[in-house]
């Protein structure tokens, strides 16, 4: 039983990272109906910028958290203003393809500026290992779990009680009606990109701390996508829960079955969910009147 | 009439000499051109850059002492970005430019892409960055490989664990990448298990690029494994060391192949990696054997370049060095055939202690160099050769 709980605990830690990225997918999709395939790369770029700032300012992990958020906000705003806003009204597939192009651009930029070799990310919250029964986690992993839970709660409050959150929900339900009601939909789009970039940025900081900083971390970030499909593309909290579920299933799959099952289980889940419940476990079912 | 015959004879000899030179590209009266295809960018650029520096040292050393028969040896280096298709294009470019030999051959799949070209055009090729079996088994007349099998390296660390660490009765496991590299590692591990009659309780494959090894290491803990053979490359080894530390596996010993004999692995794994074992046919820079090489490298490289020097620098230095030694032995008949004859003469080549002296024969174009087991000394940023 100890083994089971140990796998569960480490699965939660990995799942928290997936969840932080998955939230980013869901926020943007919910507001704009666009899947941002550059999210993993935005996460990576953020982490590299944080690394550079950390090296030059000797800021520690906690000092870098606000830095990452500020950089994310700026990055999200620039991308939304320069690339997304001019494409409003274009077919969704065009915008999605643009995000694919953006992903390639960011990957190349990172290699050009920082090189391709992995870098040591020294701004760690410490090598402290926390024990809870059979579960042993590095402090950064525990922070990832706590942070995801806090962000889930934060978004629940945001969507329910704040003007911006309610406006976001309105725009997601019906963009035209929202416009007629005086909601600045462009501002909502920008806010969605900023929020998504921020959660992804925090995920990037944590991945760099727990593992290491390298150009391949964008692929790790993309593993949050199955979590979004599982939780529901338009369900922010559901996507976070999807991250936890996939992380746990991956670890249990490897722990009890092995043979590389953990690497494919997320994508198997995508196939199954798309066949049985295309809108995800917590997503909104779209009913079209004909 | 006699005069006419003599003149005609001289002209024919001249023409024949010209033909001999024309048959072997890359040689002029003033220089000998060699080529390299290296991953100077991309995920293993640290290996490509280090390899480039090794060739640079060998050529500078040779040119400072008269080159080869008065000719300067120069290298043309092409970057393949660690993409096999680009490696093929780079090889085509080198051959179009005309190179006498190739001493940089990038990764395994990259070499596989270029090899048919090298064989078809009979380009003398020395593989030193990655001792791929496809290059020496079966023997190709113009291709020579320095190194040993990854499997031999993993075998060596397991053997060390059994014979010197008292792990004979321990439970053994292996974590390996699910590709050719990993299969090679697995074979070496399985051979050691069979030879020493070990308790093999875990064989865990992983996909290339995997970052999280928490579940794998929990299996290691759950199975009470005492020695794990790690077939990781860089990030995978680092993740395995960190997980072992997190789980408090103090009695677990980890052995790897030479992909972990790199400063980057040492730095990224930090204290978690202190004490891991690695096996390599190249000496560590801190090893007394490698002192002559380090001295030469310091002479021809800047301080910044010296920071990039690692085992791959020694490997390429070895390759370029034996090429130069063989070319010098062929001074009067500088053809690929003559150099190949020198390489496969059975003579032992010495390369300033970068690796143990080695040689080839007509039936064996693989140095099959002896492996040394090294232990990571994190605090002193070096790898210490363990007592054999």
Account of the 3D structure:
The complex is a heterodimer of chains A (290) and B (388). With 290 residues, chain A is mainly alpha-helical. Helix content of chain A is 74%, strand content 3%. In chain A, helix 2 packs parallel to helix 4 (92-114) and helix 10 crosses helix 11 (236-256). Chain A has 12 helices and 2 strands. The mean pLDDT of chain A is 88. In chain A, a hairpin with a 2-residue loop joins strand 1 (129-132) and strand 2 (135-138). Chain A has one domain (2-276): ABC transporter involved in vitamin B12 uptake, BtuC, CATH 1.10.3470. Chain B has a 7-stranded mixed beta sheet with strand order 7-6-8-9-10-11-12, sandwiched between helices. Chain B has a 5-stranded parallel beta sheet with strand order 2-1-3-4-5, sandwiched between helices. The model of chain B is unreliable at 10-22 (pLDDT under 50). Chain B is of the alpha/beta class. Chain B is built from 14 helices and 12 strands. Chain B folds into 2 domains: 9-148 and 289-369, Rossmann fold, CATH 3.40.50.2300; 150-280, Response regulator (Rossmann fold, 3-Layer(aba) Sandwich). Chain B is 45% helix and 17% strand. The longest helix of chain B has 22 residues, at 2-23. Chain B has helices spanning 2-23, 45-64, 84-97, 108-120, 133-136, 150-163, 180-196, 214-222, 235-246, 263-269, 291-300, 303-307, 311-329, 336-343; strands at residues 31-38, 72-79, 101-105, 124-127, 143-145, 171-177, 199-206, 227-231, 253-256, 277-280, 372-377, 382-385. Chain A binds chain B through residues 3, 6-7, 10-11, 13-14, 111, 115-118, 120, 127, 129, 136-138, 207, 211-212, 214-217, 219-220, 250-255, 258-260, 262-263, and chain B through 41-46, 178, 204-207, 209-212, 214-216, 218-219, 221-222, 234-235, 238-239, 242, 245-248, 264, 267-268, 270-272.
């Amino acid at each position: 039983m100890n083994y089971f709980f140990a796998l569960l605990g480490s699965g939660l830690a990995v799942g928290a990272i997936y969840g932080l990225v998955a939230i980013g997918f869901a926020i943007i999709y919910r507001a704009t109906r666009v899947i941002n395939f550059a999210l993993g790369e935005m996460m990576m770029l953020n982490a590299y910028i944080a690394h550079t700032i950390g090296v030059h300012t000797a800021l520690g992990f906690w000092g870098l958290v606000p830095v990452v958020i500020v950089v994310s906000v700026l990055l999200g705003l620039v991308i939304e203003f320069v690339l997304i806003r001019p494409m409003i009204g274009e077919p969704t597939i065009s915008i999605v393809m643009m995000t694919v192009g953006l992903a390639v651009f960011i990957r190349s930029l990172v290699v050009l500026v920082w090189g391709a070799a992995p870098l040591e990310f020294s701004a760690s919250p410490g090598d402290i290992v926390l024990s809870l029964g059979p579960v042993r986690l590095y402090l950064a992993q525990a922070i990832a779990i706590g942070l995801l839970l806090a962000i889930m709660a934060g978004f629940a409050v945001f969507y329910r009680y704040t003007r911006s959150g309610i406006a976001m929900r309105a725009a997601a339900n019906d963009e035209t009606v929202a416009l007629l009601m005086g909601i600045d939909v462009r501002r909502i789009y920008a806010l969605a990109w900023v929020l998504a970039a921020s959660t992804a940025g925090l995920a990037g900081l944590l991945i760099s701390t727990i593992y290491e900083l390298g150009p391949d971390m964008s692929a790790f970030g993309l593993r949050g996508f199955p979590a979004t499909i599982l939780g529901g593309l338009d369900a922010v909290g559901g996507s976070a829960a999807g991250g936890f579920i996939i992380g746990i299933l991956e670890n249990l799959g490897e722990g009890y079955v092995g043979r590389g099952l953990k690497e494919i289980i997320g994508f198997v889940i995508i196939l199954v969910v798309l066949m049985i419940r295309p809108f995800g476990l917590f997503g909104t079912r779209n009913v079209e009147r004909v | 009439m006699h005069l006419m015959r003599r003149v005609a004879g001289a002209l024919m000899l001249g023409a024949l000499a010209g033909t001999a030179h024309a048959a072997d590209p890359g040689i002029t009266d003033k220089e000998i051109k060699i080529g390299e295809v290296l991953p100077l960018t991309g995920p293993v650029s640290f290996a490509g850059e280090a390899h480039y520096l090794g060739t640079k040292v060998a050529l500078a050393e040779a040119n400072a002492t008269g080159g080869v028969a008065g000719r300067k040896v120069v290298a043309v280096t092409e970057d393949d970005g660690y993409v096999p298709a680009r490696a093929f294009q780079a090889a085509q470019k080198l051959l179009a430019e005309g190179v006498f030999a190739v001493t940089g051959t990038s990764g395994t799949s990259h070499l596989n892409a270029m090899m048919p070209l090298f064989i078809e055009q009979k380009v003398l090729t020395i593989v030193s960055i990655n001792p791929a079996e496809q290059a020496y088994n079966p023997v190709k007349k113009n291709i020579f490989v320095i190194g040993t099998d990854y499997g031999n390296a993993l075998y060596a660390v397991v053997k060390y664990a059994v014979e010197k660490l008292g792990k004979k009765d321990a439970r053994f496991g292996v974590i390996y990448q699910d590709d050719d590299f990993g299969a090679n590692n697995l074979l070496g591990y399985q051979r050691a298990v069979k030879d020493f009659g070990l308790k093999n309780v875990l064989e865990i494959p992983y996909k290339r690029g995997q970052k999280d090894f928490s579940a794998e290491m929990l299996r290691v803990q759950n199975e009470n494994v005492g020695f794990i053979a790690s077939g990781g490359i860089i990030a995978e080894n680092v993740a395995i060391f960190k997980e072992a530390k997190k789980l408090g596996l103090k009695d677990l010993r980890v052995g790897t192949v030479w992909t972990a004999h790199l400063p980057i692995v040492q730095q990224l794994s930090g204290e978690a990696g202190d004490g891991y074992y690695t096996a390599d046919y190249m000496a560590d820079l801190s090893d007394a054997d490698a002192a002559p090489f380090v001295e030469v490298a310091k002479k021809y490289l800047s301080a910044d370049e010296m920071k990039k020097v690692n085992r791959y620098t020694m490997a390429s230095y070895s390759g370029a060095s034996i090429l130069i030694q063989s070319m010098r032995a062929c001074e009067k008949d500088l053809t690929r055939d003559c150099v190949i004859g020198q390489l496969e003469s059975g003579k032992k080549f010495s390369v300033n202690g970068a690796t143990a002296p080695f040689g080839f024969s007509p039936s064996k174009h693989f140095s099959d160099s002896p492996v040394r087991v090294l232990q990571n000394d994190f605090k002193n940023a070096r790898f210490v050769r363990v007592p054999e």
